[in-house]
Design a protein that fits this description.
The protein has about 140 residues and is α+β, with helices and mostly antiparallel strands. It has two domains: about 50 residues, no CATH class; about 80 residues. The protein is about 40% helix and about 10% strand. Strands 1-2 form a two-stranded parallel sheet. The chain has a two-stranded antiparallel ribbon with strand order 3-4. Helix 1 links the parallel strand 1 and strand 2. The chain starts with 15 loop residues before the first strand and ends with a strand. It holds the Pfam family DUF6078.
């Protein structure tokens, strides 16, 4: 049974789609649902080779479930609520974890934080004995493309 189509406009550019409609997980796989939702004006597709898929044994490494994940958006508020000395101490570790440019993007919410990245931030705070409630600036639900 095929699930309801997804809005193709939200599919990331160059997202690899799957043509294997006979896959047991096709009805819940974002790659298959993206293929089914592709519009007629789409000139070029990125697909996972059907020949390669035929050689796979066991669980498909390309499977992406169609359940939404909870992403955090920004943590400026967390840093602003820290005493200045603690904020200065923790920022280099956050920059080290993300890299300088990505740190600024995730801090401002330009790039979303996955659940594992949120946990990584919590662990950095915990490791440095900064015990504050870590409520990110906002939360959104989206697919894990």
């Amino acid at each position: 049974m095929i699930k309801e189509k997804i809005d193709f406009s939200i599919v990331p550019h160059q997202y690899s789609m799957c043509l294997n409609s006979k896959c047991p997980k096709a009805s819940t796989c974002l790659r298959q649902l993206a293929e089914q939702s592709a519009t007629e004006d789409l000139q070029y597709w990125s697909i996972i080779s059907p020949k390669h898929l035929a050689t796979l044994k066991g669980a498909c490494p390309y499977y992406r479930p169609d359940t939404k994940m909870r992403y955090a958006k920004g943590f400026v508020g967390i840093l602003e609520n820290l005493p200045h000395k603690q904020m200065q101490a923790i920022v280099p570790y956050l920059m080290g974890a993300f890299g300088r440019r990505t740190y600024y993007r995730v801090r401002k919410g330009e790039r979303l934080l996955s659940e594992s990245e949120q946990q990584m931030i919590r662990n950095i705070f915990k490791r440095h004995r900064i015990n504050v409630a870590l409520e990110f600036d906002a939360y959104i639900e989206d697919y894990d493309w």
